[in-house]
Each structure stands twice: as structure tokens, then as C-alpha cells.
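Two quick folds needed for the group meeting slides. Do the first one here.
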Amino acid sequence: MKQVSQHVKSGAILVEEVPTPALKPGHLLVQTHYSVISPGTERASVSSRSGSLLSKAKKNPDLVKKILEQVVQQGLVATYKRVQSRLESLASLGYSASGEVVAVGKGIDDLAVGTPVACAGAGYANHAEYLLIPRNLCAKIPHGVGFDEAAYTTIGAIALQGVRQAAPTLGESVAVVGLGLVGQLTVQLLKAHGCVVLGIDVDRQAVELAKSSGADVAVGRSSADIKKVVQSLTRGRGVDAVIITAATTSNDPIQLSGEICREKGRVVLVGDVGLQLPRGPYYMKELDFRLSRSYGPGRYDPAYEEGGKDYPFGYVRWTENRNMQEFLRLLSTKEIDVQKLTTHRFNIDEAAKAYKLISGSGKGRPERSVGVLLDYEATHVRGDRIVTRIDLVPPITGARPSPLNIGFLGAGSFAQASLLPPIISHPGISLIGVCTGNGLNAKSVAKNFKFQFATTNPKDVIDNESIGTVFIATRHNLHAGYTIDAIKRGKNVFVEKPLAVNEQELAEIVKSYQAAARSKNHGVLMVGFNRNFAPSVRTAKKFFSEATGPFVINYRVNAGYLPPTHWTRDPVEGGGRIVGEVCHFVALMQHFVNAPPDRLYAEGLSIAGTMNGEDDSTIITLRFSDGSIGTITYLANADPSVPKEYIELSSTGRTAVIDNFQRLKLYKQEKLTESSSSTIQKGHREEIEAFLSAIRDGKESPIPFESLIMTTRITFKALEALRKGMPVSL
């Protein structure tokens, strides 16, 4: 399929042939008819990726701050690699589209194949021939509404949510400051609501369009008579409410709104403007200032948007999806007219030309645009564009299988920065296929790392006869299933942590691995516990080679705060922070202690208003059968400038201190030996080298299978200990 994208580093607008998204539960596959380029919103996002790196840094100071924090936590080299992989990626564009359902995912029973729908959401309703859309971001198009009209639904829902925040009543006067696409729709919605509407904009053509959209009065911002117009329109009282839909760095819309609003009126901010409230008018009039967040309740809530969990109708009358439905109803009753707002139509192949138009980067005087439609109907031949695999090089018929022929499932920023670079430097490696849920990302990774094909269907990788080794770097809930499938196919498997997110998955992995071993058809299984291979760990391990007594290990991890809505904290998708990350530190303790653990205790930080057993600030104590004791202090409440990891190990009169895998101190016989590195080295390269060497030479996994299983099981036991509030046996 064709998809519009922007190269992050260069800012170039491209139309790429990418794999069609693969259907998944709770989602719909939609063949796009039209999508809308919103000149204001998309001009800003495209502009932010254009220009030099310095200009991008100036535009995004918060992002620069985050990168600097990552340098402290992860090291300069790791951060640089991640930034570089991000710069070489392709960004999807678009967030408002319409089309026809061509496939329905499991769990959806109210929409069928052939249903016309409006689609919403950045990252979902892209400018692409096919869209994979969660159920709550789709709304059925009513009879009599064209696909070109319905494509405006997302933008209409944004305008509608702004109106709802203003809470106008019949006959009230409302000013709309900023008469771009959202502003024009806001004018029409207010008129449908029975309001007296005043439109204000710096552009005279926008003012004239607002008049045709139904504004009772529309004036230019440069007019000296704005206040007099307001007084005349409102009998000297001031407008009841102001809705700001402008896009400008200036604080003028905020200032003006305070001046023209009546006492105890409402000011609602929908657009992106300077945000310094002048005390005078806002205080003296006791104005109610409100923000409108995108399409409505549900926006930015993964449980609603991705998980499909609706809000109770009786408590949340107007959700994101219900706002979409209402806008479509207004289109069907002809109370809203988007046809007069459509200034341009382009075929999908002309997308670069469309973006040049809205950015004003063409020759001569910039051409005015309001609603810009991308048309896909010329490309429609049902079914023949649904292709989940794109070959970058012609496939080799009858290619011989090899353990060094690599396939990838999942390839996010971590995989691109930490796994793929050491893989491609290994001699004899061939990168065959890469699969991600996002076809644009799959194509981008395939091009950057020279894979032979890109796909959105994992079977294209797992069932490929020429691929001997599969790397799994997807979201956590997919690890076990893909691992089992690859084991059954007799392939070598490198799976990023965690190996599984629950006991049932782990049991299935053990069963599959043992069955493959009995049939002499099993490959090497490895989990990405990279710290075991870090240079400082290897040196410390050798340092303790003559130790005879038990260990005392203190492992402090400054993990940082993650909101409860982050996918890694979801017990189904991510498994939680203990299962998803603490497994790293358990694995490293087992690496040092040559004895199995036999008891565990865990306690979470107790926070007012929450239950004990929170998994983001936790202390876990492990006792091993040889008497060793290890304590993991996992912190989400520490200052982010503190380096992430600090390990102190003592045994038989010896002590080693590993400071963030950058400095190593060894104490023996009252003497200190210290080694330092200019970069943080957590063992990713060494881990990959050990794994690939093992499969090349026909050796066992660098980490024994039993250890991988025990590490995973310990994390499940830690959750059990948190729930019970008492030690548990291993």
C-alpha cells in the first residue's frame, strides 16, 4: 500500500510503498477513501521536523532535556545511537480519514465488512491506503454523508469538544478567535447551537469565509473597532464566551479574549498560542479559563483508545467516539457544511505537492488553503493492494537455511540502537526479514539495515525456511507466543526480556523446549540479559573466582517514574515493571551466585491513597541456598539525575562496586583497584557476540535454559510476595 511519511532527519515528504497493517484483535482494517490534511496542525508538525538539528533543538527544548537525562542514565553512546535511529526513521502523518471496513478483528461485533466509517487518531488514521484502527476510534458514517465529508470527522470532533467546554446556551454570544479549519467548523457548530457568533482572524479571506460559514459578524484582528463591534453585538456587556482556535506563538489571542469577554464569562483554549494570562481582565472579570483536550474524554487514555474500554454513558455523556458520532449526525442533517471549506483535492501520489501548499514553500505568493483532501479512490481495486510483505531485493528461490540468516520480530528504537548494530558487524550474517506492526516502520528499518524484505505478518519471518535465527523485540505480551512458534520450527531464538509475562506462558515455553530437545530439533534459546556480559561484570566475576563464602549483593536501580497508563505497567501487555525489567537484576545476581535461590521477600512503597504492593518502587530480597543474600532496591521516586544502577558485591573479604557499568572498584587485602570507562557499557555487543558465536559453533546457550526459567519465575514470585506481604518459597 501507499503511505505518506516524512523523513525525520531531512524533513522530506515521501509517498512510500509499505506493507499493509496486519489485523489484530479489537481493531478494524479500513480501506481509505479520503483523508484530510489540516493546514494548521500538520503544518506545525511537519515544520518541527524540518530544518537543521540546531533549529530542531531550539523548537523542542523539552526533548533536548530528556535526551540529556538519558545520557546520564544510559550513557552517551547508547543515547547517540537511539537518537540516530530516530533521525533516520520515517514519521507517519495524518489523523483524520474515512473509508470502508475490509476486515474485522476479534472482539468487534457491531461493525461488519463493508461498513463505511470515519477514522481518528494520530498514528492510526494516517494518510495511507489502508488503516488499522482501534474500535473506539471508528464511527459509522450515516446514510447521505459522503466519504469526502466524513474525512473531516476528527477535526470536527476537536471543534465540537471546544464548543462543549465553552458550554454555550441558546442565544449566547460567542467569539471565535482564529478562523482556520477548526475555527470555521467551530463557527458552524455554534450557529447550529443557536448562538450569536463573532469571528476574528488576521487573514481577511478567513474573515470572509467565516461570514459564509454563518458568523453573524466577522472582523480582521487589525481592525480598531473590535471592541466597539463587541459592544454593539452584545449591548455593551461583552461576549459570553471566547473560543480560541488560533495557532500562533503570540499571546495576543489570550489578551484579546480577556478584553472582549463579559464579567464571569468563559475563555476556552483549543489552539496552540502563547499562554500568559494577563491578571487585569481575567481577575477583575473573574473569567473562567478552560482548556479543551483534543477530541474529548478518552483521548490519550490507552485503555479507551487501544483497549476498547468505553466510559459509562451515564457518567461520561460525550466521549471521543460519541463526539465523532455527533459530528457525523450534523453532517447528515446538513447543519454542518464542510464542502465550502474544501479548497484543494490531491491524489495520494501528489501528497508532497499538498504539503508544499500548506507550508507555503512553493514559488511566488503562498496559495491560501483551508481544507485539503487526499483522494485514494483512484487506487481502489478491492483486495489487490492488501500486501503484508514488501521485498526490497528479489526473493531468492530455494535459498538454503542457515543459522546466521536472521529474522526480526519487532524493531523499535531499542532494537535499532542496541541489537541490530552489533548483529550486522558479525561476520557471515544475513538479515532476511523484519516484521513490525507498523508497515512504515518495517519498511524504514529494512531500508536502513538492508533486510531483504519487510512485513507486518510474523508468519513471514517464523515460517521462512531460510531463516535460522529469530530475534524477538516486540511488546512483552507477544514474546512467549513467538518464542514457542519459533522453537517448534527448530529455530534459534533470541528474545528480549521478559521471556513470558505469566506462569502459563512460561509453562508452555518449557513444554515446547523440552519437546524440541527430545526430538533433537531444538536451537539455542537466549533471553536478552545483557548485563551478564558487560565488561565490568566479567572482570568482577573473575575477581570473585576464588571466593568460597556466600555473597551479599546490594543492587540499587533508579528506574524513574512511569505513569500507570504506560504499556509496560499493564499486567497483560507489559507484565508490570517487576516482570518487565527487574528480571534483568535477578539474572545478574544469579550470574554471580553459584547456587539456586530458595526464598524471596518483596515489599512495595506504601503511598497514601494506594494499596501496598505497588510494583514501581519495590525492595526485593533473595536468599540463595548457599546462604547468599541479594537485595534489589528498585526506585521510581528518585531524582532522575542520579545514575541508573549501582551494585555492591562482597564475599570472602573481597568487595566489588559497579557504578552504572561505567566505573568498577575492586577491594582486596585493604587495597583498591579501579577501572573506568568513558562510556556506559551494559554488555549488549558482547551478549550478541556470545549468542551468535554459540549458534555458529553449535554450542549451548550462553545462559543455561534452567537459569532463564528460574529468573522469570522469580519475578512472578516477587509479585506473589507483594500481594501476600510475606516471604515465599522458591
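Then this one, please, same format:
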Amino acid sequence: MDIKGKRILILGGWGLVGMAVIRRLSEYKPKEIIVISLKENEAKDACLQLSQEAPEVTFTPEWGNIFVRRSLKDLPRDEILNNPIYRKQILEDVMEGLDDEKLTSSSINYLLNKHKPHIIIDSVNSATGLAYQDIYTGYYNLKKELKKAQDSSKLTDELGVEVEKMLSTLYIPQIIRHIQILHASMMQNKTNVYLKIGTTGTGGMGLNIPYTHSEEKPSRVLLSKTSLAGAHTLLLFLAGRTPDGPIVKEIKPAAAIAWKAINYGEIKKHGRPVELFDCKAENSEELSGQFSFNGHGKWESKNDTLKSIYIDTGENGIFSRGEFEAITTAGQMEFVTPEEIADNVILELIGGNTGSDIVNALDNAVMGPTYRAGYMRHDAIEEMKRLETENNVESVAFEILGPPRLSKLLYEAQLLKNVCGTINDVNEKSDAELSELLQKEVLENNKLRVEAISIGIPILLNNGKNLLRGPSVKIPVQLDKNQIKYNSNQFNNWANAGWIDLRESNMELWKSRISDIVNYVNGLPVEDSSSRFHHGTKYWKIDEPIDIGKLASWIFIFEDEGLRIKR
């Protein structure tokens, strides 16, 4: 892709890798680079510095947490979790269904709508940002409150708070919601390329990694980061297989990344200076079988902070000479420079083949559909048809594959087959006639009706008011309520998602689908005997009994836009 004259949005632009990527991009004369960082001063400082280095490029600063809604983007995570209103908002945004309000309120959607970038480069260490919320500490706090509640035979307010905090730190729902919003926003704004700079979580090392965050080896928190990094990659793998979406790539360094600066100064952890304390021999604490984290308090503050020589490795923090020497030794993490990562980013953007794109590697490494399976599929289907005839049953749907919409479509197609026979015969009947005939079939065909209701697919009669159902229904989904108030839009959405719908309006929709299929088949050139058409006249056989699976798959491909684009 040509970079010149394009708008490029860099997530994590102030960071070590982000700045290296921007400097390389600037050489290709993009129109504008939007630099996004967590903090306002970081984004503005980066843009000021970059403008001096490349005055011919426009640099625009943006800031805030991209994983939350815009109204919360500038708040520290602790402040959000300790505020009951914010905490509940986070839970709703992450755990409940994605709707227009959640999409348009999100930070990332706002940024993409505002700037409409042609290219997005994501150098945010998402796995670290989400996994290091530390669900395990949340678990221990929750366990403590549960014990208190059990001992006192009541629930405490603190227990409710800890439950909400625990739910708020679940990693997988957060990364899923992030990708949902990001992808929807890119589709809205017709982004061309999304390139992620990811992580392995362990700097390329294995489960024997000696650098941990606790006495446990390897640390569960560290492995959570790796797990999330893997989940993120596979979500991007799916995004890259979505029709009409951006080209999706991921560069995943498997080593430590260094360095940004070498200096002497104050040493900070989590943004705070390391205070100096002393404890002399006469003030030592005597150990007696029980260790207190609060300690005896007999230490002395030196009223000073730790100052030393350090190397700044960007997102991973600052290391001492000894730490840097140990971690970069051959046989340890070793390291890669941000400039080398930036070079690979540029090569991938302009169409080069670096061999380092993880999404492309997965595309080439996964085991896809095979010739043998395609060859044997016919035999499997024919055997199932033979057994259907032998046992006088119709194998329609069990609601095991899901979604309920598939079962609903298959049963409706089966009813059309029972009543009309062939695809061509469907359009010979009016909407009202089809509605009456299908309802008559439902009422008289006890076996079909019982099976549909029993797997959780209710039947909406053609008056639009009465529902045939069993003890459980798949749609609507029961969450935390036994009753749900609904309006006409919700009612129609439920019918579309998982009810056999006998109303005339649904018959009109089925006739429209059938017409599209017939028009497609009739539009095929009779003389063409090539491999050009995947689903040709021999596939549809519109004058033979309806094949319910073919109809359902056609709807999933064309109506629900569920086409598989890679094999």
C-alpha cells in the first residue's frame, strides 16, 4: 500500500516501538499521523518532538484509555474500580451485548470516526494492559470477603464491591469487546490496513522463564498476559477473514525490546519514586512462626529516593545495568531494537514479505478444508438421507450447532418443503396462502412441532400473538430476569433470531429469498461448463425437493453476510 498522502493512526504512539515506527513512516510523507497515548502530556510531547524532526508531516495528538468509553478515558483504573457508578458502567460495557450506544460511546470508535484513518498501527501492549489488572489478587480479596460473610451469616457491602471488581478484571470479555468495537469502527470508516505490534508475554521464552512476578514459577499473572496475547492474535486472525474489512497483520516480537534512553536519575516503580529505608541490626524483627506483612515498623526512613544508572526499555520499564545484562545474555530473552520492528512494519505496509506477520503465518499454518473431506461429504449426506427414509424421520435441527437462527431457518425451510415441495413451487403461492398452509402443517405434523418446541425453538402462529413453546426457549436469552418487557422491535428481533415465524411478513421474506435464488440460477449462462460458478444449476436443482441445508447456508452467506473468504 502507498503510504504517501495517507492518514495514519498510531495507538501507543509515544512508546518505544510507536516512536520508532512513526519516524520510519515519516520518511514516506504521509498526510497526517495521529499519535495516541495514554496521557495527554505524552501525546503532545511526542508530536512536538516529531514535528521538529519531520516538519512536512502533520502530527496530531490524542490521548486516553482506548479500552473504555470516552467519558472514562482519562481516569486511572483504580479510580474507576473504586467508584460504584463507573464500576457498574464498565461491567455493562464489557459483559452485556454490544449495541449502538456502547459502540458510539467508546474511545476507539470516537477516534476512528473523528480521524477516519487509512492505516492503523497498534503498538499498545494490550495483553499487558488488560492481564496485569491481576484477577488473582481480586480472587483473594473476594475469598476473604466471602469468608467474612460466611462467618457472620450475612453479606457485607465490601463483598458486593469485591464481586464487582472481580468481574471488572476478567480479561477475555474485555479483549473481545475491544476487538468488536475496533473492528466495527474500522468497517464504518473504511480503514484499509490494521497492523498490530503484539507480544508473546514472555519475551520469547518458555514456561521455564526465570523472570516472574512472584515466588511462583512461572507466574500466573505472566501466563495470563501470554494467554491474552494469544487470544488477541486469534481474534485478529478472525478479523482478517472477515469480508470487506481491513487487511489485518500482526508483528509479534519474541525478545525484550530496547532501548529508549540511558541515564542517571531517580528510579520509579509504577510512576512513584522508590523511597529509601534502613533497618539496623538492633531493630531486626524476630520471626516466630507467623509472618506479618505489616511488620513491626522499626525501620527508618532516609527521606530520600533511589537514584542510579538505568536503561529505559519503554513499556517494560527501566532496568539496572545488572538486570539489562542478565536479561539480554545469549540464552535468555536477548533483545530486538525498536528500529528493527519499525522496519518490518514499513515493509509489511508497502507490500514486502518479512515472514514476521503472525496472521499470515497462521493462515498458512492452519489446516483448512481438505479434498478428502469434500469428496466424502457426498457419501455422508447420502447415508443420512437413506437412514431418514428407512426410519421415516426428517433430520432437521437439534440446536447443538447453533445459533438458534439456524434451527429456525432449517425448520421453516422444512415446512416449505413439506407444503410446496420444490423451490419453484414456493413462489406460485401468495403470502397469505403460504402462511395458512405452513400453520396447518405445524398443527397437524405432531412430530415436527414437538421436536422444534423441545429443542427450544418456539412457533409464532400467523396471528402474531400466540406462541407454541416448551419449558425452555433459546431466544430471548434469559440473563438475570424471569420476565422481560418488550416492544415491537424486540419482538420482531426475537422472531428473526430464533422463532419459527408463520406470519405473512415472514412468508414474503422467504419468497424474496427464493426469487433471488431462482433469478441467480436463471441468469447463469447455459453454455458455460467451466469451473467459474461454485453454486451452479446442478447445485440448486430448483425443480427437485427443497434442500433445507442449502437454503440455510445461502441465507447465512448472502443475507447474514457470513461468507468464508479464506480456505
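Slide caption for protein two: The chain has a mean pLDDT of 89.
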